[in-house]
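Thread: adenosine-5'-diphosphate complex, take 2
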Amino acid sequence: MTEARILIVDDDVALLDALPRALRLRLDGVEIDTVDNAGDALKQIILTDYDAIVSDIKMPGMDGLGVLSEIRKLRPKTPTLLITGHGEHDLAVQALRGGAYDFVQKPIDRDYFVASLERAIEMRKLERQVEDQRHALERHARVLAHVDNGVVLVDDGSVVRYWNPAAEAITGLPAHEVIDKAVGAILSGWNTVTELVPVSEVPGPEGAAAKTLPLELDGKELWLSISGVRFGDGVVYAFRDVTEERALDELKGEFVATISHELRTPLAAIYGSAQTLQRRDLKLDEGTRERLLEVIAAESERLTRIAGDILLANSLDSGRLRLESGHVELAALAKDVVDEMREAFAEREDIMITLEPVNGGGTEVSADPDKLRQVLINLIDNAVKYSPEGGRVQVEVEPRDSGIRVVVRDEGIGIPGSEQQRIFGKFYRIDPQLSRGVGGTGLGLYICRELVRRMQGRISVESREGTGSTFCIDLPVAPVSASQRQTAVSEPA
Ligand code: ADP
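Output below.
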């Protein structure tokens, strides 16, 4: 017998002395408290969660039945044995009805008494174990409900037996639609996925590493990093949604591919020109030397622009970029940029860059002048770049009720409808076949959108494939009170 704590309640002092002694002889490690009245007994019971209680049924004041009913209220799980007088069958029956675990008649048969008490203690102990296990299970269930990895138990018959809230959140499938269903019927690609997932016998670092696999759900592709651990009659799978990380990886791959391609062209031109200039066996006339040096200068400038764009995109991402807040006369800025671009594209005789006269009032906006210039240059540069067959690039500044709009319109290759929102994404470039193989980093429009946003403006596009594109920037009118103020505009969250 292991440790147990019991309480004996009896007004018979002799019995209260004899019973514990007899019990201690027969029950190892039992701790016995005694009290001679019901009131003290209840006080003790409030303080201590006994493994069993023994009470005389007849006591002055509150009798054993009264004590029993109080015990049932205070400690409903504690087994209570009542001691009844000889032949008091009715009382004994009453005791059992009242929830007593057993009764012992006087004169007490010690063997029976000890055996009954032992059983009661054992039962309470088992009950406590069950309770502890139930609490542990509840705790585990709560823990599983709070982990942010999807946890799923699939039994050997491929039926889902557990589906935690993170699994619900990741897949969008609520537990009630999944539990007790065949996993293949709910997640059609599951069986293919699990064939590839390593299932280890033990969790932890000794187990197999998680695998990253795609799972098709509702027409969407979900990338999961998933691992399995054998669990009795099934497998517990744990998974993490890595769709975004994967998209980022893809983006990184695209970035490396695009940038290295974009760097290679000017580098090759610079290298080729420099090598030609270095050759002693060639007699280069002044005009050729001049042209080769021009190539080196122009291509170096292109490299500088690419590096600048990468750095700018990076500081936009990290929120480190600070914009000046100033007043910009948009019509004047547009004229300046148009003049500059006409010069830059002087050799493109097939292109005409025009600036329409402003209709209406003032065109002063609140913006960072350098950054706004950069946005306009990017848009006009694209308009020319994506007009391989020439045409007109029209720039317009238009005062509107809600602000000032600047429009850059071209008659170039246009942008398919499905791509019109995506072109503002970082590194996004339309399929080179559609964009007629024109080179670029896919950063220009991303930078435009981010800069315009930070100037509290909006950029949009309208376009038809083969007809041309119109990019519009809407900017807020400069507030009079903010004149000359040079405040840093921090990045929106
Ligand atoms: P890029 O360096 O590739 O020009 P951008 O971010 O400036 O990068 O543009 C993204 C994509 O949008 C381009 O690859 C191109 O396909 C398309 N695009 C941008 N401007 C135009 C335009 N004016 N006409 C047609 N397509 C355009």
